[in-house]
Amino acid sequence: MAADSAPSLVRLIIGPAEFLAERAVADVVATAAAMDPDHDRTEVNGAELAPGALIELTSPSLFSQARAVVIRQLPELDDKMHDELVSYAESPSPDVVLGLVHPGSTKGKKLVDRLRKLSSVEEIRCDEPKPWELTRFVTAETRRHGGSIESDAAEFLLAAVGHDLRALSAATHQLVSDFAPQRITIDIVRRYYAGRSEVRSFDIANAAIEGRVADAMEQLRWALTHRVASVLVTSAFASGLRSLARLQSAPHGLRDNDLAREIGVPAFRLKNLRSQLRSWSAGGLARAIEAVAAADVSVKGGAGDPDHALERMVLTVAYSRNRR
Questions:
Q1: Mean pLDDT to the nearest integer, 265-278
Q2: Cα dihedral 229, 235, 236, 239 in deg (nearest 10)
């Protein structure tokens, strides 16, 4: 949108990057709040909407002048609702900001294509950045928070914090809050994050658990070159695999918050853990956990070459996926 244009009242928020999608949803709510501080907010899943429900959701509220309406899981919307939604999006209510959240899958593509053709609909892409795009993401996040960062500082921050978008955004916000309007340099980032080697250790563990052998080995060599303590690496592997084992044995039917407490992880990690667990059997997990325990003994003095022990652990964990 142009800087002087009115904010879009219908926004198609599409893509698998959960952090970016949640921020786009927050922007929907913020736009409604700017229209009326006492705005009304409604969130529903697409599967919950029956024909005619959209009219009720977008009708004027008795208690506020503006409304924020978020429809999540757009692919689950009943086909009978498609015409109704497209018709509304063509001529949206001036007092309603509508966010349509789609994970970017092929399901519901016909509806997405129809919405994309409307000039009244703003498409907001929420794609996971490619590895080589992450430095640019750090730079953009710093600018979004009102600061600026040197390119080598952005690369160092990425190496120290890891690839999680939420963590990177939080890190840039913290740096800008403490140092703006000063430009963020590598010395500033090193002062804050050089000691966070444990974060990089979790990147190695996640890569191995997800079977990305080349990534895991590359990051392990980075860690060894930068003298990351071996026990931090084995600890990260043990933590990741224990979480998977607890998820595998957790009672069925628990709500996400209860399940997170049962496993001992933040609720936002459940999505990634579930994705990882699809490739693991109970036998594979047991084999991987044994390999981590053996490596832990080795790096604490039980073997002459701890680096080799870590490499063997990474390979054993990665190749234990999809095995009985």
A1: 82
A2: -170
